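Archive entry. Fields below.
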Amino acid sequence: MPSVEALFSVGLAVYLAGAVAGLAAWRRPAAARVAGFALALAGTLLQGAASAMALVQGAGATWTLPLGTALFPWTVRLDPLSAYFNLALAFLACAVSVYSFGYVRHMEGKKNVGTLVFFYNLLLLSLSLVFTAANAFSFLVAWEVMALVAYCLVSFEHEKAEARRAGVVFLVMSHAGTGLLLVAFLVLATTARSLDFARFHLLGSQLPLLDQGAVFLLFFLGFGVKAGIVPLHIWLPDAHPVAPSNVSALMSGIVIKTGIYGMARVFFDFFGPPPLWAGTVVLSIGVASALLGVLYALMEHDLKRLLAYHSIENIGIILMGFGAALVFRALGHGNLAAVALVAGLYHTFNHATFKGLLFLGAGSVLHGTGTRNMEHMGGLIRRMPATALFFLVGSVAISGLPPLNGFVSEWLTYQALLAGFGSTESLTRMMFPISGALLALTAALAAACFVKAFGIPFLALPRSEAAAAAKESPVSMQIGMGILAAGCVALGVGATWFVRLFDPITSQALGLRVSSSLVAANGLAMAAGTGRGGTVSTAGIAVLGLALGGIAAILVMLRSRGARRVSGPTWDCGLPGLTADNQYTATAFSKPLRMIFSALYRPRREIQAEYEVSPYYPTAIRFESDIEPTFEKRFYDPLQRSILELARRMRGIQAGSIHAYLAYIFVTLILLLLFGVRG
Amino acid sequence: MMQLLLLLAISPLISGLIKTLKARMQTRRGPGVLQFYRDLYKLFRKGMVIPDTASWIFTAAPYIVFVTTLMAGLMLPMTSTKAPLDLFGGVLAIVYLLGLGRFFLALAGMDTGSSFGGLGSSREMTISALAEPAMMLAVFTVAIAANSTNLSEVARSAVGQNWRFFAPAQMLACAALYLVLIAETGRIPVDNPATHLELTMVHEAMILEYSGPHLALIEWAASMKQLVLMTLLVNVFWPFGLASGPSVPGALGGLGWLLLKLGLLSCSIVLVETTNAKLRLFRVPEMLAVAFTLGTLALVSTFLF
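PREDICTED_STRUCTURE:
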């Protein structure tokens, strides 16, 4: 049996080999594609095996990779938390790599496939290093490599202006976030006199109260940029859709989870019980992200942008779990904190699975129709049956409907929030049920959104020639989606088995094992972890549902034997023939919600009708409608303007005179000397 | 098994009762309490016309709606405090199972390619999304009091302390759930179950293309959903008569009480239906906001009083 260290290190080396293979074979795209993605696939399998072993063993393996310098060694640690995130990465990347064999083929001859393969493998490598870095130096290096590689992938289709713009916004936001992280790490490092993560354990809580709050917020915002929390999310809906779809799946599925990983590491490893307000802030931001994410998603007609907004929503749901866990920890309820943490972490894995699946499905649709605009799709369920089925599985899962995986983690979140009401006597307790109610609203709106996101592209009549001529994707893409769809089902139905995997993590973070209290009736049902909190059995629901459905179908068939079953045209109100133009559009579908939440959206609508004789008989109508991008307009535009204004004023001190510059250097030197003497 | 038959058997009765009572209130004779059974019997023998634009979603949806509603009903204590499928889930599972059925029904509405289907789906999903938080708050109020989201536990704890209906929290939560019930079952201020081809319709627009056994399944499921939500309301807030163990006299007594309570609730629904006009679609959110506020007040009052 090979050791965890060996498997992991070989996996990294295989990623590196994949990257090199991509560059080496860039003149022969087919070879680069096959070799690159085969190596990526092999790497994910090795990494997955290593992470699963590390997670099951529960003890953290720590060793040094020959990458760093003597002063800054590159230490790698696969403790349960790292192993868990790395496992999610390996699982998603495995499916995406299989998918990429078929998906990237259409780029051959048009794009430089070799560089795509290079950056793809490098992204997997850097992600794996981010999750496992054991000191601040290697973490930040891996973090930066990841950001730069992600930038290259976002701007991969750089001939399009939107891809270039999205890339720049992503890069700026990402670096602002890294700046915050750098400061926070420096504060911790000066206190610990070390860069080692092991020395940071519980260190945050030993800082003076003011520093503690500052460091907490710096970490939260710094990681929040990457995770895409509201209001730091503006880069996300631009950056994720413009990347090639296999990369979008990785970006939304796992790259934003690096922010979640960082938060988990800081909140539950570097900090002990935090002050109460910290948890409250995280919970509130979680609720705001969830609700605003889904509300903006509802207004999108670009399939991939819609999915990107849903990532913001799901990050919000994860943070609701984390926030509740922090509050419980502050109040001294260790068990509840563990349940809430499990809810957040479970949702992290689930989101990686179904969002990866949905982005791969969207990529398959894009591959088949050549468009991302839902208003030009329709009827794809007949032409792309496999893609439709997988996309449907993802839609049901992300809407949090039983018996799939989204339901399980949302159910756990509800239970944690409900238990929170009894955890304190103060008014803080109202926060929990209100958050729960808003989570219900979020989930119901997500269901509405996915009725649209599945119904408009896949059902009824095709709305364009491209949709009518769509072809099903190649087998490798179907297998890639199939793996993730199977994951959605397994993580949902087998929930009672999977919660056991969280024991090492909670025991590392909080010193508690809660999985036995989360399982009832010999593993048949999930329990709420608080004695009498309630039970649910996704496996039971699935089996019973299939059985009852089968019985009902047989009875109906027996009863209506001999009855006519004919196919006929849809009722068209007596008009001659129903066409695709009669169908409800995505805009029309979300119209009631646009009206109801108009205070948020501030929709704008413009109708111009041309007519010759009477205004009642228009010859042509032009309709335009959009919503106001509130955050960009009210926050980022003024910010950008003031930064530019500041820069303009600072131009004065850069006069180009060498004497002035010498004076600046001199003054700076003196100041530094003064600081040096004082210190 | 008993409860399975009970759900299937008495849901058409309640629907028929409401229809007849409503007719009497409007000084009409009405079709008779048993009409719904005759309708189902007739529909199951009819042939089906399936729109040629429709896919397998259209055929699968009636079964999914029917089965999810049935399972939701089995998680509910009807005649005794022990729900048959208590282990499989509580009130959260009920809400989400009904949500699963609605999800597929809305997809089926869009599958036909007619604008009515899309219209119905869009409105149904909107209204239900807005009703959800109010429902959750009402449910949380009772779940917090009982320390459990499983309804058997809720009912047991309510029976133990006898009737606490006059506690402000219970009354407010009950009012919130009542408004949600009206919205979710498509009753008059929100939707009109009696019209077919009007631009006001929601649920009926969505299922316009269904015929024969499929339509029967959907109608039956809708009537069961109404029964499930009504039973939820009456058994959580007025838990008298619930048998505490599995005994024949207890079950019969529980059944008697259940029918009585459902009858009373039906009367109040009929009153609301006959005395109110249908709201404009964009006024419905205001009504649901009232429900949400009531739910919040219910929670606040659990620790104020």
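CURATOR_NOTE: Residues 630-678 of chain A form one domain.
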